[in-house]
Amino acid sequence: MSAEIFAKVQQLIEEIEAAKPATKEEVEQFRVRFLGSKNIIKPLFGEIVKVENTRKKEYGQLCNTAKTTAEAKFAALQEWLEAQADAADSMAIDLTAPADPFPVGSRHPVSIVMNRIVDIFARIGFTVVEGPEVETDWYNFTAMNTPEDHPARDMQDTFYIQNSKTWLLRTHTSPVQARVMERTKPPIRIIAPGRVYRNETISARSHAQFHQVEGLYIDENVSFADLKQTLMFFAQEMFGSAKIRLRPSFFPFTEPSAEMDVWLGTDTPENARLTKGTGWLEILGCGMVDPQVLENCGIDSKKYTGFAFGMGIERQALRLFSIPDIRFLFESDVRFLKQFAAAI
Ligand code: DAH
Questions:
Q1: 254 ligand 1 Cβ < 6 A
Q2: DSSP annotation of 314
Q3: Facing residues of 168 across strands?
Q4: Residue 296 and residue 149 in one domain
């Protein structure tokens, strides 16, 4: 009696091993037959009551083998089905179809203008240098001939680092002049683009953080005519036929000093606001480097003269792209930014 029952299980194991389901449906049939809720292995376990006691353990193990063999085979069949489906998927890809568009960002208008400025000055022999944004009082003010009691030193204008009297966020790119003069022998012809910080009320015209490009040219016999010529060349390259004016001004580090304005007009309320009703937008300060600054930085002011300038980048972006408010430049709104994709 026992031998027959054993043979039945043994046969089933052989059937499981030999099974070759070739389709998804046949795999499913396999699962239902051997592993489903009404599978044919289950009742065989019950047959154990008919097995003599000495062979009960052996019989139980054989039934288990039938079950695990079915499970292992089913797992392998499933893997095979998945691999087949993947292969079918990849066959379905049309390699000649156009790719999905990949959205690339656009350059920020500040970067566009900065690159244009660098490019214009590179063409007339200026090289680019950089300086730190966290500066010392010496480079930012003292070396630049800004006396202790100058209003620019007030806490109102300058962000000092943790109430330090020495360390601050540079308020302009002019300290780069001092750093370069200290380590370079004339002739010097550099521009220094970078970010600057001022403790100012944010408005349509000004921001607490903005960008400048500093310029410095030192050699023998450099004159105000050279300065004017250089800046007029720059203005023409940057603004084409736009009206430009140079007017006298004051800076502690230059003598004489001037400022350059570009014409915006007052025809729109935005332009009137940006130019405070004058029509002119100030874009840079400049002048002949004060001999005291040269001496502060170890350059012989009897032998050398030079000119310097510092221009605001955001202001030029407002003019070039007719942006009505400087705050747009710092809000990271993609609806604003993506309009510059074509400007490079
Ligand atoms: N540093 C000045 C400012 O931020 C701009 C400036 C004026 C820079 C005259 C210069 C200069 O190099 O010669 O307002």
A1: yes
A2: H
A3: 135, 160
A4: yes
- Please say which residue of 66, 92, 118 terminates a domain: 92
- 283 located within any domain: yes
Measure the CA dihedral 231/235/236/238, to 10°: 130
Average pLDDT value for residue range 303-323: 95
Give which of 177, 75, 198 is closest to 126, Cα–Cα: 177
Order across the sheet with 280-289: list the strands: 127-128, 188-197, 209-219, 305-312, 280-289, 254-263, 244-251
For residue 229, the tally of other CB atoms under 10 A from its CB is 12
Q: Output the pTM of the full model.
A: 0.71
The answer to whether residue 103 is domain-embedded is no
Which amino acid residue places its CA nearest to atom 14 of ligand 1?
A: 285
The token duo for 119 is 């490019």
What integer is the mean pLDDT of 160-180?
93
Distance (angstroms) between ligand 1 centre and the Cα of 283 equals: 10
CB neighbours (10 Å) of residue 8? 13
| CATH assignment of the domain containing 314 | 3.30.930.10
Note whether 234 and 306 are same-domain residues: yes
Per residue in 194-219, pLDDT (tens digit) is 999 999 888 888 889 999 999 999 99
| Secondary structure class of 47 (helix, strand, coil) | helix
**Adjacent-strand bridge partners of 286:** 258, 309
Residue 285 Cβ inside 6 Å of ligand 1? The answer reads: yes
Q: Is the pLDDT of residue 103 over 80?
A: no
Rounded distance from Cα 328 to ligand 1 centre (Å): 25
* Strand duo 127-128 + 188-197: pairing: parallel
| β-pairing verdict for 134-136 and 127-128 | unpaired
How many Å apart are CA 207 and CA 62, to the nearest integer? 83
Domain coverage including residue 150: 109-340
Is any atom of ligand 1 closer than 6 Å to the C-beta of 312? no
Mean pLDDT of the chain: 92
Counting the structural domains of the chain, the total is 2
Which one of 92, 124, 156 terminates a domain? 92
